[in-house]
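User: structure tokens for this one?
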Amino acid sequence: MSEQPSKAPRPVTTPRPFKILGLQQIAVGGLSLDALRGLWVDTLGVDKVGEFESESENVREDILQLGSGPHAVEVDLMQPLDPDGRPKVHDPALNHIGLWVDDLGAAVEWLDAQRMRFTPGGIRKGASGHDICFVHPKGNDEFPVSGQGVLIELVQAPAEVIAANS
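Assistant:
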């Protein structure tokens, strides 16, 4: 399966059964969680609201929050458990963006029919407890539609976010 970064996706021919509601998160990776925390928490004053660790995702992270309520944006500071392992949560340093989706199941089904490439793992629980799925940053022959170089996390929006963005 070869990459096809310049191939344009085919035109959408069916109605989109979901809506992107807003930015849910950004994720920043580095080899030192202490250094990331020093910048984001100690220097910039962003509030830390949680922690997460996953061997299968090769990550130890601090979960920060900008703002409050349904319009809050999560900032995940990520350090790899194994710097040589995969996924490489620190490369690139701006690891991914997360988008709130009103109906994640419908979105994944529809995007799959549009030949969107997803990363392995399917829909699963993310660090903040929401169902998530990742759009692969690179397309291939079978699934040419991709994040165009950006890893995109689709995140099932909770009811209060859906209501605030309707």
